[in-house]
Amino acid sequence: MGQWGQQVIVIGGGVVGLTSAWWLLEAGFGVTVVERAPEVAMGASGANGGQLSYRYVSPLADAGVPLKAIEWLFQEHGPLRFKPEFDLRQWTWLASFLGQCTASANRRTTAKLLELGEWSRAGMKQLEHIVSPNDFAWRDAGKLVVYRSSKIFEQAAGKATAGEIWSGAECAQREPSLAAARSLLAGGIYNGGEAVADCYAFCVKLAERLRAHPRFKGFVQAEVERIASNGGRVVGLDTNVGAIGGDAFVLAAGIQSRNLAAQAGIKLPLYPLKGYSLTAPIRPGDTAPEISVTDFERKVLYARIGEQLRVAAMVDMVGEDVSLNPKRIGSLTRQVRETMPHAADYERISAWAGLRPATPNSAPIIGATPLSNLWLNVGHGPLGFTFAAGTARILADLMAGKQAPFALDMLALAR
């Protein structure tokens, strides 16, 4: 049994921090959430792709990816953009990433992420009793990954984890929003049970439930400037509004976790992968996708979230720059109009960019640190919404002195 009534400070008010707070409350801890923004979910949780892809968890690192990345860099509308930095952390992360770009490493990580995905799916089912799916536009739509290259499609279809195999014509027939791209598609792979939802709306509703919980101590809007430690443990947080104390501390602050951990002498293998999204209203008569669609070669994701089309794409390795790049937004808009020309009102598009805190092997980091009362729930990359419920459940169990539901050999800080 854990220390019932112990006071925990969760740093971060995104989907990972909020789900961590909820499960810690349910485990008997008192919880305070510290968030630097005036509202929850203002970072990477704000307007992300919205997919909950429990079965489609393929890590970015894989055999052949380095060569593909070089090709992408020279494509005008390629999914990758790289800006070299005078920052050793960028190059250290890249070296580790390249070390993961083997078929065997990809298989090992994928197996572990599938295990985490099923645990997360079960966690979200539990949260349906706390936050109604209707409150955050939950749709059990299934996921269709479409391929333009016959060779790549055949390779994907041959994997044991593949779902239903559809021809290009079947893709357009079963998902009419793809009709304009029918001649460009070699085929697709469909998996049922995958969902889409509004991550921001989910966070807002969960925050309301946190405020109503008898053990919740409240939200504190503050910029954490330093994690103060002494004698192998955290003694408090230095913030722009004063010191904050507690019995235990959870770092779940997205890419900001990297700098905060470093000040406490802990190196987190995180790098911000900048992604973009477009959101456009769906009008009566528009042919918006009913199924969640991923364009594999272009790395573009399409999801209907309520009465809006959400399109997410691209990986920019440009440091902690969250500005909207007009060229990238323009390129993505052109691709969307070409692939799904009648899916939404593209004259009323709103654009967004966010930093996805990724590890070299795409597996998040959960659990203990060298400081006895500092815990981690970081590094979810583009799958924060997907994995948040699962990693939060695991974290709460670990902090309560319970065993993890499965081996965390690839999910711990030491990996």
Automatic annotation (TrEMBL):
<comment type="similarity">
    <text>Belongs to the DadA oxidoreductase family.</text>
</comment>
<dbReference type="Pfam" id="PF01266">
    <property type="entry name" value="DAO"/>
</dbReference>
<protein>
    <submittedName>
        <fullName>D-amino acid dehydrogenase</fullName>
        <ecNumber>1.4.99.-</ecNumber>
    </submittedName>
</protein>
<feature type="domain" description="FAD dependent oxidoreductase">
    <location>
        <begin position="8"/>
        <end position="398"/>
    </location>
</feature>
<dbReference type="GO" id="GO:0016491">
    <property type="term" value="F:oxidoreductase activity"/>
</dbReference>
<keyword id="KW-0560">Oxidoreductase</keyword>
<dbReference type="InterPro" id="IPR036188">
    <property type="entry name" value="FAD/NAD-bd_sf"/>
</dbReference>
<dbReference type="InterPro" id="IPR006076">
    <property type="entry name" value="FAD-dep_OxRdtase"/>
</dbReference>
